Amino acid sequence: MSSDFESYEQDFAVLTAEITGRIGKVPKLVGDDKKQMVANVEKQIEEARELLEQMELEVREIPPQSRGMYSSRMRSYKQEMGKLEADFKRSRIAYSDEVRNELLGDDGNSSENQRAHLLDNTERLERSSRRLEAGYQIAVETEQIGQEMLENLSHDREKIQRARERV
């Protein structure tokens, strides 16, 4: 059983080395080459996960007295896999940023455009804030007028009731 585990370990080591190398190449590639590399890395990461599952199954079948050593190895392999996935995610984020820039036509000299856009948005926000404040003032005044009208109606009702009582 341990020979199966060791062969899985060797396969995992080779696979993780390939994945690491390819992850490093992803940001440097462009276009279809980059898409293909990302797809290949995704497949290899899935293969590495499957190898880890096979290794876990092998560890479960190892006698309890020697299982501890293999369990600690498994923990380190899982940590290594987590790091690989995080590195791949970071390289994909860089990849998606580059694609976004290509699609939007950002050429790196757009800071002036961004600043102008930011100033326009700030101005628009300030105008909206002023409108909201004016609307709030109108609502407060309307509420006060409504309250005064209700008080007047209440006084008028009392007068009418007193007049009825006299009659």
UniProtKB/TrEMBL annotation:
It holds the Pfam family V-SNARE_C. It comes from the Eukaryota. Signal peptide: none annotated. It is a single-pass type IV membrane protein; Single-pass membrane protein. It is found in: Endomembrane system; Golgi apparatus membrane. The keyword Membrane applies. PANTHER family: VESICLE TRANSPORT THROUGH INTERACTION WITH T-SNARES HOMOLOG 1A, VESICLE TRANSPORT V-SNARE PROTEIN VTI1-RELATED. Interacts with distinct SNARE complexes that contain either STX5 or STX6. Interacts with NAPA and, to a lesser extent, with NAPG. Identified in a complex containing STX6, STX12, VAMP4 and VTI1A. This is Vesicle transport through interaction with t-SNAREs homolog 1A.
